[in-house]
Specification:
248 residues, 10 helices
Length: 248
């Protein structure tokens, strides 16, 4: 039977630290997607991660509450590595079929060189996107919510906020992915549907990530799954595009 490791609910905690975290996330999202150059993304991610952890500690969350306890490193690694294996096998199976290859075709990676692809998949994604988002949503925010409202509300609220987090980066994606464009259509309507679909799917993903964090006791587990879906997705998409280009 799976054991659940979750922060203990505490009565009477102030609500304003949660507001501070949510406002900080909104500001980070806007700055990262609309203001700051992408060259500085890793710096923003590292700085934001440390800032949020500081808020979490000041709010009274222990490292174990936030899924960062030393005693859960091994279970977190096991679940994380297992997630990478499962996702990789899933991509391999999908790549065996034409519709699967079409779904993985993403023009955002078409122009990347080999070294740039490696840097993005092995540095920017794990130490930027995955690190910051898991620290933000599955470590700090989840723990603060669970200690105030309980585990189930924490899963629901953090997952919805995680979905909303993807509104800005999903704008225009229907024009970069042929598979997505064929589903949602073109123009403004297609853009709205693409954003809505992104919010829905990432909210569901947030529930899965939170579940992994609970059964493993560590954010390393959702980090593994998160990286696999993004990082391996880049590798497979890039390889499929290169293979198709050579056949023309």
């Amino acid at each position: 039977m799976l054991s659940i490791t979750a922060p203990e609910q505490v009565a009477g905690l102030a609500w304003w630290p949660l507001v501070v975290v949510v406002v900080a996330l909104i500001a980070f999202n806007v700055v990262n997607n609309r203001v700051a150059p992408q060259d500085h993304y890793l710096l923003w991610a590292f700085g934001g991660s440390f800032g949020l952890l500081a808020i979490g500690v000041l709010d009274g969350n222990s490292w174990t509450d936030m899924g960062l306890g030393w005693g859960y490193i091994i279970p977190g690694l096991i679940w994380g590595v297992g997630s990478v294996v499962v996702v990789t096998v899933g991509y391999l199976l999908a790549a065996a079929f034409r519709k699967g290859r079409d779904a993985m075709h993403d023009e955002r990676v078409a122009s990347l060189s080999g070294p740039r692809l490696m840097f993005q998949a092995l540095v920017e994604v794990p130490f930027g996107t995955v690190l910051f988002e898991e620290i933000a949503f599955r470590a700090v925010l989840f723990s603060m919510l669970a200690r105030r409202f309980g585990v189930v509300p924490a899963i629901i609220i953090s997952s919805i906020l995680f979905g909303l987090w993807h509104i800005l980066p999903s704008i225009g994606t229907h024009e970069q992915s042929a598979a997505l464009g064929s589903v949602v259509g073109e123009g403004r309507r297609g853009n709205i549907l693409a954003v809505a679909l992104s919010v829905l799917t990432t909210s569901v993903a947030g529930v899965v990530f939170a579940g992994l964090r609970l059964v493993s006791g560590s954010v390393l587990a959702p980090m593994g799954l998160h990286w696999a879906t993004n990082g391996m997705g880049y590798f497979f998409s890039w390889t499929i595009i290169r293979f198709r280009n050579r056949r023309r």
